[in-house]
């Protein structure tokens, strides 16, 4: 009888035991083809969670941005920065790979300073976005190395252009596609 009670206690204990995923950080080189085009570094912070839960991550991206300004009279390429803060949720429970959805709060500032036809053209384009969703698929190439393609769009709220920049020449709603190659610690 003691053995039966002992076995039942062991079985019931194992039924309530939950396996946890540990906290991890993934550092990635990222590229986004959009308006503006971005080259940068991405940090993904994933918190500990149970195996039967969808994993969520916090993301921080810092990128160098390039944007082409083209009106009927001139064409110029500006350079600046884009900063993104967001979250990601993996669709499959308990794993940090496969399909995911993410959204970012974004701020970008691109400066133009170029000599065109002997005259100095300068200005600044600034935007914010709180609606910047992506859908992607994270592929674990090795235990620590991952490839992360994604597609999405960005709805930009533009700040009035400065200098020779007129916001009419930029789209507020832009599609984007990108990829990240990351290493997980």
Automatic annotation (TrEMBL):
It comes from the Bacteria. Keywords: Signal. The keyword Signal applies. Residues 1-17 form the signal peptide. This is DUF3575 domain-containing protein. The lineage of its organism: Bacteria, Pseudomonadati, Bacteroidota, Flavobacteriia, Flavobacteriales.
């Amino acid at each position: 009888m003691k053995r039966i009670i002992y076995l039942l206690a062991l079985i019931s204990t194992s039924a309530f035991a939950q396996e946890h995923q540990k906290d991890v950080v993934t550092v990635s080189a990222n590229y986004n083809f959009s308006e503006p085009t971005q080259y940068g570094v991405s940090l993904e912070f994933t918190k500990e969670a149970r195996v039967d839960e969808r994993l969520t991550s916090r993301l921080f991206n810092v990128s160098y941005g390039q944007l082409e300004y083209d009106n009927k009279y001139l064409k110029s390429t500006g350079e600046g920065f884009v900063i993104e803060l967001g979250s990601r949720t993996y669709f499959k429970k308990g794993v940090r790979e496969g399909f995911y959805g993410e959204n970012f709060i974004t701020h970008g500032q691109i400066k133009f300073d170029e000599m065109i036809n002997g005259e100095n053209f300068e200005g600044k384009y600034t935007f914010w976005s709180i609606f910047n969703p992506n859908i992607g698929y994270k592929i674990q190439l090795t235990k620590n190395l991952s490839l992360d393609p994604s597609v999405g769009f960005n709805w930009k709220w533009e700040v009035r252009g400065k200098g020779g920049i007129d916001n009419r020449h930029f789209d507020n709603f832009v599609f984007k596609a990108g990829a990240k190659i990351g290493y997980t610690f």
